[in-house]
């Protein structure tokens, strides 16, 4: 890794290297083999690649009074097997945004890591935070970069949520495999269990909920997703595993502590047990 | 055909060094100090947006004096080096030592090969979990590198600022203490200080101050130790 100074071409190389504040753009010029999806050759991947690599599944996100909340279950599957019970699918992207991933876990984790460095890199080079729209667009470009892999069955579908510090509200963005970016209102869900989570969200979500209520709505909608989708893991009381939940508001992104999630999950389980209904 | 005059390598290097030294000596000074709470970086800088102090990585910061465009390009190159290294290996594998040696190579290459040496002096600081683990590297225009204990002074009036700090700095001080000591040392030795009219006060708007917190994970829930202090915070510390 050379710094862009020194030698006879230094003026030229300095200007060309300094032209971007984007880490991924710099990487694609200086070390393209480190980019997710480009690593190794994708030519040998068969069309049923979902049996070759673990998949992460359901993510739910919703707005509440003053911010957004995002939650993900803990299961990764490989075909019909459970590959992991501990996987985390929701990550802080920077101080004011979070990212949830569904799809091929390995590539999604790489995209997440690249996206986190991308935002931090911009902040350090430019001395200012990227706007929320700017962050959402950068993520779209990264997903578009993975399109060749997605065509072979290794798709990554993120859900992006953040606090817009200019407009002072929480916003949600969903994506398709081509990197198309869609702003969502109120709530959204991605992954194989998302149809069931979406149904739950439609009934449970109310405008201007407080944070505690939003956490329990997120947990309950994941519970419904796990109930009907085999690739989504429910609350695991034996191993004491609860969903990963992040809340973002004007104070920044914070992870909801385990004890709050344990209480929310146990309340959902208790109310379902008391009702004694089949579905 | 014009005649090429012979210049001995010794003379050439000496001329370049003199040129670079003159450029640096015109600049206002920057001080980087290790203390009990972490590392404080204090610069005299009237501009609120053109920084002399910057974040490089989780526990690493950068400070410079000299020509802005030259050290800014080095700062950005350092951020790129650190981000690529941290992304391709692990965040732990980015160290001030590695960064400083890459800077030394670049500065050395420019000094010997380019038509003009860089008129800059840099400090690379890495905060450790204990004060004994703090690293302060000082790099000069010709690529020489020094590992300094305690504190680094760069810029115009090194000797005079060093003199004052030697009596005012103490390893057990907190951020407020060393920032006050640094501001005092910079104040007493401004290049345009006539001496007869006494010291000129350096207000918060004339100072750029940042710190590297020793344990940012537990104090702020963030692995990034770098924090720029606002004018209000600096005013509080200086107690005007």
TrEMBL record, chain A:
Activity regulation field: The formation of the proteasomal ATPase ARC-20S proteasome complex, likely via the docking of the C-termini of ARC into the intersubunit pockets in the alpha-rings, may trigger opening of the gate for substrate entry. Interconversion between the open-gate and close-gate conformations leads to a dynamic regulation of the 20S proteasome proteolysis activity.
CDD domains the UniProt entry points to: proteasome_protease_HslV
Keyword Hydrolase: yes
Propeptide residues per the UniProt entry: 1-56
GO CC, alphabetical: cytoplasm; proteasome core complex, beta-subunit complex
EC code: 3.4.25.1
GO biological process terms, semicolon-separated: modification-dependent protein catabolic process; proteasomal protein catabolic process
InterPro entries to which the protein is assigned, alphabetical: Ntn_hydrolases_N, Proteasome_sua/b, Proteasome_suB-type, PSB_actinobac
Summary of the function given for this chain in its UniProt record: Component of the proteasome core, a large protease complex with broad specificity involved in protein degradation.
Compartments, record wording: Cytoplasm
UniProt keyword terms in alphabetical order: Autocatalytic cleavage, Cytoplasm, Hydrolase, Protease, Proteasome, Threonine protease, Zymogen
Family: Belongs to the peptidase T1B family.
Protein name: Proteasome subunit beta
Main location: cytoplasm
Xref: PANTHER family: ATP-DEPENDENT PROTEASE SUBUNIT HSLV, METALLOPROTEASE TLDD
Reaction equation(s) it catalyzes: Cleavage of peptide bonds with very broad specificity
Domain of life: Bacteria
Assembly, per entry: The 20S proteasome core is composed of 14 alpha and 14 beta subunits that assemble into four stacked heptameric rings, resulting in a barrel-shaped structure. The two inner rings, each composed of seven catalytic beta subunits, are sandwiched by two outer rings, each composed of seven alpha subunits. The catalytic chamber with the active sites is on the inside of the barrel. Has a gated structure, the ends of the cylinder being occluded by the N-termini of the alpha-subunits. Is capped by the proteasome-associated ATPase, ARC.
Organism: Crystallibacter crystallopoietes
Active-site residues from the entry: 57
Automatic annotation (TrEMBL), chain B:
Pathway: Protein degradation; proteasomal Pup-dependent pathway
Keywords: Cytoplasm, Proteasome
Major localisation: cytoplasm
GO molecular function: threonine-type endopeptidase activity
Stored Pfam families: Proteasome
Entry keyword DNA damage: no
Localization annotation: Cytoplasm
Keyword Cytoplasm included in the entry's annotation: yes
Activity regulation information from UniProt: The formation of the proteasomal ATPase ARC-20S proteasome complex, likely via the docking of the C-termini of ARC into the intersubunit pockets in the alpha-rings, may trigger opening of the gate for substrate entry. Interconversion between the open-gate and close-gate conformations leads to a dynamic regulation of the 20S proteasome proteolysis activity.
GO cellular component, one term: proteasome core complex, alpha-subunit complex
Stored InterPro entries: Ntn_hydrolases_N, Proteasome_alpha-type, Proteasome_asu_bac, Proteasome_sua/b
One GO BP: proteasomal protein catabolic process
Superkingdom per UniProt: Bacteria
Protein family per UniProt: Belongs to the peptidase T1A family.
Subunit structure of this chain's protein: The 20S proteasome core is composed of 14 alpha and 14 beta subunits that assemble into four stacked heptameric rings, resulting in a barrel-shaped structure. The two inner rings, each composed of seven catalytic beta subunits, are sandwiched by two outer rings, each composed of seven alpha subunits. The catalytic chamber with the active sites is on the inside of the barrel. Has a gated structure, the ends of the cylinder being occluded by the N-termini of the alpha-subunits. Is capped by the proteasome-associated ATPase, ARC.
Protein function: Component of the proteasome core, a large protease complex with broad specificity involved in protein degradation.
Name of the protein in question: Proteasome subunit alpha
Organismal lineage: Bacteria, Bacillati, Actinomycetota, Actinomycetes, Micrococcales
